DNA sequence: CATGAATGAGCTTTCATTCAT
DNA sequence: CATGAATGAAAGCTCATTCAT
């Protein structure tokens, strides 16, 4: 390997704006984007470097040039999808003074994020199949964790202060509840469809599930049972 | 194929008493068990026929003899794990006249089943990665679906009749809620551990989560908020 | 790998005489012979499995079938060339009662063996480049050592008894002297040719060297200086 | 190639005093030294340009800049190790009027040079594996040959004049004898260790061999058998 | 003098599968 | 029921080398 520019935990360089540098960025980025697509569709084992480089209209070698090896590419993929999730989360506009409504928004955001980004779900499944061996290599990815729960924590606290949410709740539990209910629907939709004999891809099916989840979460955190 | 005993959708034959047949059962079964282990650990793509036949102390060729090909083996694996889940579920002793308690038992059963059978979780993830292409080939596996929800349905109905559970509930939603909360914890425990900075494998962590889930489910289905 | 028939230290099976078995032996043997040729010519690193399987008119896969991997093949190669050397050595007809003449024959045999089997020299060089990591894996190869020195030992003892050879000699030293003088000429003939400005491949050059070596060995072991 | 300072057969330039030139010397030299180490350890085929440039803390491209290609680098390596050997040989202090003692010193020098410079041995083996194709490209390397034998020739002639050495000896044979006995011990020490069941790296084992070799050489060249 | 980017061919090895008996 | 032998394709990765600046 002719000195690959190690980029694992460093921020994007973007030093020069010269044409060559841009072209390089493009190659690396298109490889990364292709990797997300391919790994999401075929898993880590099923997603070959060849499929990826071909999808990126580049060459196998470039993957090794930019990411060291397949594992390094997968680490970069995880970092990227966590980063995207984080960015999206940071963008939601929350009125914390209305805790019930705010929680509803958060739940909706999470569920719809999984819905719109099925690759996030599949890629995390791949990582879990491999017992989290890649994520532990990335300091960057792990840094993305705190914000997610932080938001819920603030919402819950506001609710407690206003006397509408239960005092004894742990933000982490509520976070996991929301995540689980949104994730599972996406992650297991094929076996569930077969199992339940119902097409989970139909919009109204999802809509009903979303309503149920919001209701369920609110019932879990609220002191007074929700109306409806 | 030299007359493989097609077993894909047929019911299990009563074990014959002939010596050869018994030995055959043994080979087939050990291959199947090995396949469950290997596919669960490495996924469908990562689990090679070689790894499996070696783990079963048999030979590659025997897989083709008994299961046609790798796909056929995976279908058999799915059937087997669904069957096991079904058998276990059928064995739970439920006092339907005590709906709250009965529901608690069901939730506990589901969560602990995932806990004790991580291969179930991983294998379903593999199947979902492949968009459920194997499960649709198996009538047998799909038959196992109804009982699971049936149980919850009976419990809910009993609760409604006794005036403690909400009338408007759909059993399928409650089933999915329970499944999701148990499944997600297992399925994503590696990324969650990294994400939350907390070891989800610790018994007390699981116990707390279990309590939260039971509470949450009961709050979701009950008319009066649960005490505690 | 579909259960390669491990043959590393076991003797040739030759169980059946059926046509298929013979064909298999042929494939394995032709791969082994091709490997000797190719490794001798290009070294262990330069000799690719592709070159070998092509030279044997077989396929890469068969190397893995019969030898596990490239290393396993090289181990088998070492065993084979040691075996051949041993067999040839066992075939020399020695009149031990004439120690001087017998020693002359032994020296001549060794020198001419290297001359006629340049692959022996090159392959041992490859193994030494790799710090003997393959030879230590083979019990079989190491068994071939003793006979070689044994012969020289018997010759020396006979000479001592007859009062013509020095008593204080160690067979191992004499063995190494003979080996070194024959081996070096072969092993280093290209650099020596450039260095000395003389073609060591010319028959008469070799003949003169051979005479010198015999003379030198006899002067080393004899009590009375040799005439000549 | 962008004007590489062709150095293949040219003599070393007197080091210029310009700062940049000095830095260049350093890069070139560290590449060369790294190449010696890496080629010695892994052979010509096993020693990749990447390993070398990395070991020199430089870049692949610099190898092409200074040496044209991998072959050119290997030629430079050969030239360098021959030069070093020559320099060392030129430094030995010989009292030619004491031919027996002088010869003893020469033998000792050669044996210990191989001992202390195992890379010399390995690299010559690599070159011989490739049939001397690099050495013939270098006029410089071939020039180093004559001195080596010249020394032995002078010693032998002195011995003949003093009536202690045999008249019919050819310096080249004696030179090769000495070289062979020292070289073989180094070159083949791994296979020999396995073969003889004795660790040739142990200092006392080498010391005994050295004594044997000196004795053997003296017996070969002397008229009267040596005492001891 | 030096660099980042790129390339095509090759490497060892593993894949699922089939043949003939 | 089971076996040894064989196969073509593809896997991840490294090779020496060249491009443009």
Give the helices and strands, then pairings.
The structure is a homotetramer of 228-residue chains.
Chain A lengths: L18 H28 L2 H7 L4 H8 L2 H22 L7 H18 L1 H12 L9 H5 L1 H17 L9 H17 L1 H8 L6 H19 L7
Helix pairs in contact in A: 1-2, 1-4, 1-6, 2-3, 3-4, 4-6, 5-6, 5-8, 5-9, 5-11, 8-9, 9-11
The structure holds a DNA duplex (21 and 21 nucleotides).
What tags apply to this protein structure?
Tetracycline Repressor, domain 2, 228 residues, homotetramer, DNA-binding, Arc Repressor Mutant, subunit A
Task: Give an overview in words.
The structure is a homotetramer. With about 230 residues, chain A is mainly alpha-helical. Chain A folds into two domains: about 20-70, Arc Repressor Mutant, subunit A (Orthogonal Bundle); about 80-220, Tetracycline Repressor, domain 2, CATH 1.10.357.10. The first copy, chain A, contains eleven helices and no strands. Chain A has helices at about 20-45, 50-55, 60-65, 70-90, 100-115, 120-130, 140-145, 145-160, 170-185, 190-195, 205-220. In chain A, helix 2 crosses helix 3, helix 4 (about 70-90) crosses helix 6 (about 120-130) and helix 5 packs parallel to helix 9 (about 170-185). The longest helix of chain A has 28 residues, at about 20-45. Chain A is globular and about 60 Å long. The N and C termini of chain A lie far apart (about 60 Å). The interface between A and B is large, with 55 and 55 residues. Chain A binds a DNA duplex (21 and 21 nucleotides) through helix 1 and helix 3.
